[in-house]
From TrEMBL:
Keywords: Aminopeptidase, Hydrolase, Metal-binding, Metalloprotease, Protease, Zinc. InterPro entries: Aminopeptidase_N-like_N, Aminopeptidase_N-like_N_sf, ERAP1-like_C_dom, Pept_M1_aminopeptidase, Peptidase_M1, Peptidase_M1_aminopeptidases, Peptidase_M1_dom, Peptidase_M4/M1_CTD_sf. Residues 523-814 form the ERAP1-like C-terminal domain. One of its GO terms (molecular function) is metalloaminopeptidase activity. This is Aminopeptidase N. Pfam families: ERAP1_C (PF11838), Peptidase_M1 (PF01433), Peptidase_M1_N (PF17900). Residues 239-450 form the Peptidase M1 membrane alanine aminopeptidase domain.
């Protein structure tokens, strides 16, 4: 076995300097990748032969190709290369010619850990499925390549697979032929010029649904055991795909570049991946119970997010990871923009503000904050920047850029960017330059302020009628950024609030003089156009915290609730007052697009920011409100899920038991909460297991057991998460985390805080979409000062992986704020 089959910890992380040197030296023309998956039907072996055609601008120079599997043999221009020369996932390539052909045959047996590739056996029918997900540098785990985003090339895949399997890749297959030694050979059409990280091969005995829409051939795939869920969701998924392709194609001025657009739902994948023409999803989004409105909205946003990457990321790709994480900001912005403009989810900006933007504020507030464009010296640091700054704050900052430049100029700049750089690589300046040219303004300063600086500004309305000023203060004593925002003015009209005017403001200094009409309430950053902590004047703040439900638009009500939550996180408002504000809004709220996010935020405040002896009382209040909202047919499904998460009383559980008779997903939630309240019913769990057709039903039973306030219950869950890795990525991992960390179970959980610190170093460098649940998601929700000190010491220790460091810094900051709100820390 060559040294290239080293453990993950031993693999070299490509540096920016190495990538720049290799890109200046090479032009890659094409990859022909022959993969053999037949060894995966009953084992763990994947074989690949990669033929790379590339040019060298400096003949005689040396470089290396990336390959982390066992190299069986390799030739460069017909001359053998000794596999033993490979080290740390790199095979040296000496004495390059002007035109080169490299052939590397390799094998990989690490196909069970989700590091770029995952073989999964469905527990219900024993069918085997395979997915790949290569961001940021995991393509090297499957085939030899130059694994960096700015060495784009045409890819031609041929795949040998078991005869019962369907194989999917970026392009349409051109033929499927029987192999003389068993199985079938799938040959795929050439891709356009793609970065290696957005190529894909998925395989297994998939269930398939297809539709023709607007000239596109749309495919949906899932494992056989979830065909009922896919059949249920397919009409909306096809409609959303049709709407998204039409919207983006028109607005960006470039139609999607091929007829085939597949979406593949696979087991044990957390999140989704924007592979060109073949998006891979974790199949946890094929919900096993009745989807709520907010769950459907989130699925729509994922679909549109990954689709937006077909343009921003796949068609045009940033050169290196310092700029490339802007992909996520753009796709998140584009998804919400398209959801509002092209689908039925028209309240998505309000839902984003309550459910997602707050996470961006939270991370930006603490020591794990970083610029949207940060310093990324190597790929391992890129992993650390894959967080709420890239996604949630980045989305808000791009919305601010659209407001600042003007929506039409912003779109005109995007169209020019896609037109001028199609199938190429860019830097951030290419994007801001195109938008700046469209709006007639040099955006260099704006870019530096917003994309190269960390932290959140605060916008505070000061003064009195006739002399209003908006004070803009930057983080850490720095000057504030320029902001384009609206101040909404409202007047009391009986029991309602009447919208009087929107006053448009562009800040250029610390103080901006304003002329505001006479009104009773002034709402800073109404319509949520910028990313800043908004503070209205004291009279308006007191009024809005008490009467936010009277505001006339969902987005304004969302802003009021978000302001209260931001004040709680910063220690400016108690959990009691924050919860009272949210529940006050929910007394009057009827818009389905914000009801569920409000309920979820209320549950978070009750469960994580309340003193332990107040948790059940506050959860009771949330549950009581959810129980009433469940009487509204439009709100019922989401309200019942909130009731299930917060139930305390016999009446709560009686209502839930009646509602969950035929809804297994709801029934599992009810049993988990019942177990957390000390009412674990082993017989009820067994009955559910017997009735539930979900192939992952046993995981749900484990989540119920993990909810108990018992050391053995937590131990069983810990073993499943960190030893067996048997909890599927995606929603199941999230539910397990919520079941595990319950502040009211503090004494049982404290020993696991140190164990968390023991486990996470081994997770460094692993598969991005799976591991982040075990690193970021599993940061403890309980702790002592001793644990906080240990976590900070680990974060600051020399040699700590950047991803681990970021998780620790952010986790400590959040836990400190929660513990202070609970009264457990001074």
């Amino acid at each position: 076995m060559s040294d290239s089959a080293s453990s993950l910890e031993d693999l070299a992380s490509l540096t920016r300097e190495e990538a720049e040197e290799r890109a200046s030296l090479l032009e890659v023309h094409r990859y022909d990748v022959a993969m053999d998956l037949r060894g995966l039907l009953d084992g763990e072996l994947l074989e690949a032969t990669s033929t790379v055609v590339f040019s060298c601008r400096n003949p005689g120079a040396d470089t290396f190709v990336d390959c982390t599997g066992e190299i069986r043999h390799a030739t460069l221009n017909g001359v053998s290369i000794d596999p033993a020369t490979a080290s740390r996932g790199r095979l040296p390539l000496p004495d390059l010619q002007a035109d080169n052909v490299l052939v590397v045959a390799s094998s990989q047996t690490d196909t069970a850990t989700a590091h770029g590739i995952k073989r999964t056996v469905d527990p219900s029918d024993k069918n085997v499925y395979l997915w790949t997900s290569f961001e940021p540098d995991m393509a090297r785990r499957v085939f030899a390549n130059f694994d960096q985003p700015d060495l784009k090339a045409v890819h031609g895949f041929t795949v040998s697979a078991p005869e019962t399997w369907t194989v999917l890749s970026n392009s349409r297959h051109s033929s499927v032929d029987e192999l003389p030694d068993g199985g079938r050979l799938w040959t795929f059409e050439d891709t356009p010029r793609l970065s290696t990280y957005v190529t894909v091969v998925n395989a297994g005995p998939f269930y398939e649904v297809r539709a023709e829409r607007d000239g596109y051939d749309l495919g949906l795939f899932c494992r056989q055991s979830l065909r009922a869920q896919l059949d249920r969701d397919a009409p909306e998924l096809f409609q959303l795909t049709q709407q998204g392709l039409a919207w983006f194609g028109e607005k960006f001025g470039v139609p999607f570049g091929q007829e085939k657009y597949d979406q593949v739902f696979v087991p044990d994948l957390g999140g989704a991946m924007e592979n060109w023409g073949c998006v891979t999803w974790g199949d946890g989004v094929l919900l096993r119970g009745t989807p709520t409105y907010d769950q459907r909205r989130r699925i729509a946003l994922i679909l549109l997010h990954e689709m937006a990457h077909m343009w921003f990321g796949d068609l045009v790709t940033m050169k290196w990871w310092d700029d490339l994480w802007l992909n996520e900001a753009f796709a998140s912005w584009a998804a919400t923009w398209a959801a509002v403009g092209a689908t039925s989810y028209t309240d998505s900006w309000a839902g984003y503000l309550v459910a997602d933007k707050q996470e961006g504020y939270r991370v930006d507030l603490g020591p794990a904050s970083h610029p949207i464009r940060g310093d990324v010296p190597d790929v391992s640091q890129a992993m650390a920047n894959f967080d709420a700054i890239s996604y949630n704050k980045g989305q808000a900052v791009l919305r601010q850029l659209s407001a600042y430049a003007g929506d039409e100029a912003f779109l005109e700049g995007l169209r020019a960017y896609f037109r001028d750089h199609a199938w190429g690589n860019t830097r951030l300046e290419d994007l801001t330059g195109a938008i700046g040219a469209a709006c007639g303004e040099d955006l260099t300063g704006w870019q530096k302020d917003w994309l190269d600086r960390a932290g959140t500004d605060t916008l505070t309305l000061e003064g009195a009628p006739g002399h209003w000023q908006l004070r803009a203060t930057g983080p850490h004593g720095e000057p504030a950024r320029p902001h384009r925002l609206d101040i909404g003015c409202y007047a009391v009209d009986g029991q309602a609030l009447r919208h009087v005017a929107d006053v448009s403001v562009t800040t250029t200094a610390e103080l901006t003089d304003l002329e505001l009409p006479a009104c009773d309430l002034r709402l800073v950053n109404d319509h949520d156009l910028t990313f800043a902590a908004a503070r209205p004047d004291p009279d308006s703040l007191a009024f809005v915290l008490s009467h936010a439900g009277r505001l006339p638009s969902p987005l304004s009500r969302a802003l009021a609730v978000a302001t209260a939550y931001d004040m709680l996180v910063k220690g400016e408002l108690s959990a009691e007052d924050t919860l009272t504000c949210i529940l006050g809004v929910l007394e009057e709220e009827t818009v389905v697009g914000v009801t569920e996010p409000f309920l979820k935020l209320a549950g978070l405040v009750a469960g994580l920011y309340s003193p332990v002896d107040k948790i059940l009382e506050r959860r009771t209040r949330v549950a009581d409100r959810a129980a009433l909202l469940a009487a509204n047919s439009d709100l019922r499904t989401g309200a019942l899920q909130s009731l299930a998460a917060n139930a305390v009383t016999d009446d709560h559980f009686a209502q839930l038991d009646e509602a969950s008779v035929d809804d297994f997903a709801l029934a599992w939630r009810v049993e988990a909460t019942r177990a957390a309240r000390g009412r674990y019913d082993a017989e009820a769990v067994e009955r559910l297991l017997e009735r539930d057709p979900d192939p992952d039903a046993e995981v749900n039973a484990l989540i119920v057991r993990a909810s108990r306030n018992l050391p053995e219950a937590k131990e069983e869950a810990w073993h499943a998460l960190y030893v067996d890795r048997s909890v599927p990525g995606g929603p199941s991992t999230g539910q397990m985390i919520g079941a595990f960390w319950r502040p009211e179970q503090r004494e049982v959980l404290l020993p696991f805080t140190d164990r968390y610190l023991e486990e996470i170093p081994a997770l460094a460098g692993g598969g991005m979409l799976r591991v982040f649940g075990l690193v970021l998601g599993m940061f403890p929700e309980v702790g002592t000062q001793e644990f906080l000190d240990k976590a900070l010491a680990m974060a600051r220790a020399e040699g700590t992986d950047p991803t681990i460091r970021a998780a620790l810094l952010g986790g400590v900051d959040t836990l400190v704020r929660e513990l202070r709100a609970r009264g457990e820390l001074a």
